[in-house]
Design brief:
Nuclear Transport Factor 2, Chain: A, 43% helix, elongated
């Protein structure tokens, strides 16, 4: 004989699904850099970098790069690469799109509006220089916008 499914069984199944969904959501938040303070700090630093690059303050951008990056790329080469990048001319707006973090790497993506139109700007952070996060890369529209440091840190 077939047993009818009771209301309590349905509630139990739905409850289990809800609990699993909440656990998945919480884990996903933790795995993608769920620490709110780190998320806020890296997003703010990434925004400062993109704003400085978009307004021609290339020395300010260079100062935000990791020590290992600066030891592998001269300030002159760095400045030249940014100054020659048309996608950074006259940045008018910067809008946060995504933040993602995994153990020793973080990525902040912005949609920027400039003379080149609307493109994505991605700032990459690493923890290779000790426990502190440091910028190691910048790409615009999927293409590296700065010279790669010796040893491939960007």
């Amino acid at each position: 004989m077939k047993k009818a499914v009771g209301a309590n069984q349905i509630i139990g199944i739905v409850g289990a699904i809800v609990v699993l969904g909440i656990m998945f959501w919480a884990f996903k938040g933790f795995a993608s850099g769920g620490d709110p303070e780190t998320t806020r700090n890296l997003t703010q630093e990434a925004r400062q970098l993109v704003e400085a690059a978009g307004s021609g303050r290339y020395d300010d951008v260079y100062a935000l790069m990791s020590p290992s990056y600066r030891s592998g790329v001269s300030a002159d080469d760095f400045r030249e690469a940014l100054a020659n990048n048309a996608q950074l001319r006259n940045v008018e707006s910067i809008e946060l799109k995504e933040y993602d973090s995994r153990e020793d790497r973080a990525r902040v993506t912005f949609a920027i509006e400039s003379d080149a139109g609307r493109i994505d700007a991605v700032v990459i952070f690493s923890r290779r220089d000790g426990d502190d996060w440091a910028v190691v890369g910048l790409s615009l529209a999927g293409v590296p916008a700065i010279p790669q440091a010796a040893g491939g840190t960007s």
